[in-house]
Amino acid sequence: MSERNRYRIAGAFVLALILTAFGWAFWDGAGVPSLPVVAQAGIPPRPPAPVLQNYPPQQPVLPLQTEVAPVVNQAAQMQATEVAPPPTAAAQPAKPITKNEVKAAAKPVAPPEVQFDQQGVPAAWSLQLASFKDEANAKRLHQQVQGKGHKAYLIQEGGLHKVLIGPELDKARMERLKAEIKTQFGLAAMVVRYQLPGAK
């Protein structure tokens, strides 16, 4: 017998002894240590399972098939609707134009009547309103006349302070203004020849 076979037989014999000893100890129970017993007094009992209750819904559940109002195109609806035009005012007949109105419109405006002196210089005219010895009274009237839109001015002559309106080349216009001053201020004005300041 070879040495290799002898080692195999010896190893098998030793293994059989070990298995026999382990199996004997397992079946006997003497060689295996027992586990400590856990005390069951400290573990609380298992709680019961909660009971589920069916509660009624707080809001009514709408059915899935709910009818929805169709969307209306307001622009198309407005175009389709005929808008009645606002009532127009009754056309009033045109007033016929008289012959006198036509003649008055076609009549040319007459140029102002201008007078000339001996030297051929156009004469200018002023409207003298009043003369005062007190300069304050003359200035007061002067301001009142200017407040009405007239071209008033003051001159001093022979110790008197005079209030005048003008000058104008049209003497007829100054005559019409004379009547207007009579209505506005109650003054009896007079039309005088305009003289340059300092002229004699």
From TrEMBL:
Signal peptide: none annotated. Residues 119-194 form the SPOR domain. The lineage of its organism: Bacteria, Pseudomonadati, Pseudomonadota, Gammaproteobacteria, Oceanospirillales. It comes from Balneatrix alpica. InterPro entries: Cell_div_SPOR-domain, SPOR-like_dom, SPOR-like_sf. It holds the Pfam family SPOR. This is SPOR domain-containing protein.
